[in-house]
Amino acid sequence: MTTKSIGVPDLQDSTGSATGSYACYIHPDGSITCGYRKPEKKGKQEKQYEQDISDIYQVHEWRESDPTAYLGSRDYCLVESKDENARAFEARLASKLDPTQELSQTKKTYGQNGITKLGQRKLKSGLALLERIYGIERLTLVTMTLPSEDYGLDAVDLYHIANNWGLLKKRYFQEVRRLLQRRGAPEYIAEVTELQNKRFKKYGEVAPHLHFVFVGKKDARSLAYYIKPAELRAIWRRCLTNLCGYSKRDVNVKASCNMQQIKSSAVGYLSKYMSKGKDDCDRVKEAGLESCLPKQWWGLHGGLRDLVEDYTHELNQEKSSFALTANEGDEGIEKVRVMSIPYDHEPDENKEVEEDEFIVGRYLKVTAWMYEFLSGIPWDLSYLRGQEAVP
Known about the structure:
The protein is 37% helix and 18% strand.
């Protein structure tokens, strides 16, 4: 089976009109994503506003050429100043939305199928930046779990916590970041949520787990951590108590915290939790507990999300062409994945069409030196440690 050639990012049809292009982005974890981007289409209101402006100008030109001309049944509200009328319609055109239009009241639900591909990519990029700036030896992985009924949380408490998981995470990481700030440590945190599948199968309880990575040590050789497990447990218990009520002040969280040093790769440690979600979510929804599913399965805190955006760049046309034609095994290319769909466009009768698949996306994993060549950014970012924005 053949595929349509995509050697050039800009695509054109047989008439020479643009039919779309490929946008290629390079990410901090050394991956490149290439996606087909359709040409922008104007909305109905924007088209109507442009037509209104065109009609007004035509009417003005008609009146200026013959002031006594009859406009017929077309009811135009004209003013004497052509510029004033044009400005009024241009203002409407710039707004794009009709202010009298009622907004939809339908509430959109999020997180029903686990972490998205975009979320995985952002999270991997954040973890990669932590490795590149601070080194793997300084990173720490923490897992926070919810106590069972024997330790103070019953089924009603767990239901309330699951429905307010986002609020619990927000309060918890606010306190953790304050403690890191007081001790002069970086505040960057990358976190992902996982459902405790065994617990749900056995008891029917939706009990989320929280996994997060942060800079836990001052240097690679140090044995001391910025924050001790006992302090993380104390913050966790305080947040649970505030959320569930004062009666839960004696909840036992002794076994709720596990902290370990990362030895190989932060991305590898959290990847197994990123890949889970879809099947677990389906089981929860089948039980009628979809409200207990997290709305947000991942997060980047302390400015790490902005840092990911700063180090994600769109490639120019020349480098995009390279990314669109590179193959696995080429120098500097570790992995290539191609996403394609059947090419169902109408063929030209006078032209032999051999392509029967259309490439809509590409994923590449490149080496460190290839990343430096394509992005113009050094792979080693340890020099950022001394800057004010990156403690």
